[in-house]
Amino acid sequence: MLLAALAAGAEQELPVYPGTVHTRIGNDLIIAGEYYRLAYFTTDDSMEKVADYFARHWRGLGYPTVVEGDLRNEAVVSALYTREGLQRGVVLRRHLGKTAGFTVLRDLWVRAPKKPGAGLVKLEGTLFSQDITTRDDPGGSQHRSSLVQGGLDHVRQQVSESMTRQGFSLVREVGTKLEGELRFTLEHARKGEQVVTTLSRMDEQSTAVLQMWVGSDRPDALPNGEAVRQSRAAWEREQREKKAPQEGAP
Amino acid sequence: MRTLALALVLLVASPAPAAMPGKALLEHLSKGLRTTQVGDWVTYKLDGGGARVHYWRLAVVGEEKDSLGRDALWLEMEMGTHPAMRAPLSQIRMLIARGTDGMAFKPGSVTRLVVAMGFDKPQEYSQEALDWALTKHPQPRAAPPPQRPAEPPVVRSGKETRLMTPAGTVTAVPIEVLYRSTVIKRTWMSREIPILQLAKVEIPRIAHALEVFEYGVNAKPRMLLPDPKTPRVKLEYAEKAFPQLPWLEEENP
After folding, report:
1. Nearest by CB: A82 against B83, B84, B87
2. What is the mean predicted confidence (pLDDT) over B53-70?
3. What is the pLDDT of residue A15?
4. Which of A71, B104, B135, B159 counts the most CB atoms within 10 A of its CB?
5. Inter-chain touch B119–A63, beta carbons under 8 Å
């Protein structure tokens, strides 16, 4: 992958706004078949000041830079690194009186191999569909957001049939009402894999389908890192419970 | 390809002192015209007025025999909006056979061509695509302009003088193209400027100018070259390409 391969093996860095803490979102992401790295930060500085910092920085170095948005509620500053085939950018929004920034590094040359996630269904009548893939160490996850033509029950039926055909079995099905709208969550599992599908009615003619596939080498499909964390938490809880009666004893 | 065509015209046309008018220019060049060497580079500033400022860099970054066994030079050309060229808008690298009789390059002698436009990945041209790119294709002709009494433009050269440029002061000779009493174009040639020996071009009536911005003799290759697995630029034929459009393939796997 180009993000890590350039500059004699040095990892390509995300854009940084000075004086703030940047938190990575996932590891390497694949969005619509393209490689991304993302992080976010918040600051008390105005959106205009933050946008101006990035625009001046990139323009000063000689990168073609574009600033878009009203610079009050939203702004996007983006620079093209044409030699390396990379795009660096920052997406800015106002959030709880602060400026929230999402810094982005996007690979323009290398596309992820087309490998549709098992269990993520593509239904007949799909009007729009976008995939996001994370490649974290403990296991991977894939997300698909789709807008499908058809009523909620019809689409739910289609999803169930498609999952069964792929060898998944239904583990749980929950129907809830959110703001008066019916919504279904289906959990399917296969050895080492789990797919959570959320279906919500958009209107009479269309249904939104959000699917998340999680895979790991564990039979319960929990990512290893999460399993270790849960195991450690359970052990600590057990230790605390053991200690408590001893301390309480006369 | 416009950039390539412009560059080839300049490369082929400008370093031919015998074709230039004027004793002053010949005397200037005869004081020692440097042979183009690996490492030579020059950056020009193209000022089209207002914010229309671009930079154009030429650099000789290697030499080898071409496929026909001729001495040839690797020339990198970059066009961008900043002289540092960290992110050029176009990059071209070509292998050109060396010229003879004082010419830096031989006309029509490009045997390899690698191109990257915008943020595209650099790709080498296949032989078929290269032949097509270097061939003049006839354009549909517009209606001929109304006939006017022919009055050919006059070309004259001035005396050798010191010319101030962003790259420093150089010794140069002006060559002017006049139509009646109007200077249409003024070109300043200098033997001190590598590769093209071109110091400045002015088109006064529209306030356009191209002038040397920086130059030197320590150029290193900067363009990332495609690995052998990268597909070459090929010509596509409509009858083959249309049935293979990605969205049609998706519908009929």
Report:
1. B87
2. 94
3. 95
4. B104
5. no
Confidence band, pLDDT 50/70/90 cuts, at residue A107: very high
Q: Is B232 exposed, middle or buried, given 0-12, 13-18 or 19+ CB atoms closer than 10 A?
A: middle
Using CA atoms, how far residue A201 sits from A123, A126, A157, B81, B169, in Å, is 15, 14, 14, 50, 73
Give the side-chain half-sphere CA count within 13 A for B235: 9
For residue A76, what are its two tokens? 């996007």
How confident is the model over B102-143, as pLDDT tens digits? 566 666 789 999 999 999 999 999 999 998 888 877 777 777
Report the length, in residues, of chain A: 250
* Contact between B87 and A79 using a beta-carbon 8 Å cutoff: yes
Top residue of A83, A84, A86, A109 to mutate, by most chain B CBs within 10 Å, is A83
Cβ contacts of B154 within 8 Å, gap of 6 or more: B177, B178, B179
Percent of chain A with pLDDT over 70: 82
Check residue A135 and give its pLDDT: 64
Q: A181 in helix, strand or coil?
A: strand
- Stretch 73-132 of chain B: residues touching chain A, C-beta under 8 Å: 80-89, 91, 116, 118-119, 121
Q: By C-alpha distance, which of A85, A87, A54, A86 is closest to A69? A: A54
Interchain proximity B86–A80, CB inside 8 Å: no
Q: Enumerate residues 6+ apart whose C-beta is below 8 A from A196.
A: A185, A186, A187, A211, A212, A214
Instruction: Tell me how far apart the alpha carbons of residues A75 and A56 are, in angstroms, rounded to a whole number.
Output: 15
Closest residue by Cα to residue A112 from A216, A10, A209, A28: A28
Does the pTM surpass 0.90? The reply is: no
Q: Taking 60 as the threshold, does the pLDDT of residue A44 lie above it?
A: yes
pLDDT in tens, B69-94: 989 999 999 999 999 999 999 999 99
For B135-168, the pLDDT digits (tens) are: 877 777 777 776 766 788 889 888 999 999 999 9
Alpha-carbon gap, residue B107 to B149, rounded angstroms: 34
CB A80 to CB B118 under 8 A?
yes
A18 CB-contact burial (10 Å; exposed 0-12 / middle 13-18 / buried 19+): exposed
CB contacts < 8 A, A to B, total 43
Nearest to A62 among B87, B116, B223 (CB): B87
Identify whether the C-beta of residue A150 lies closer than 8 Å to the C-beta of residue A158.
yes
Coil, strand or helix: which one is B72?
strand
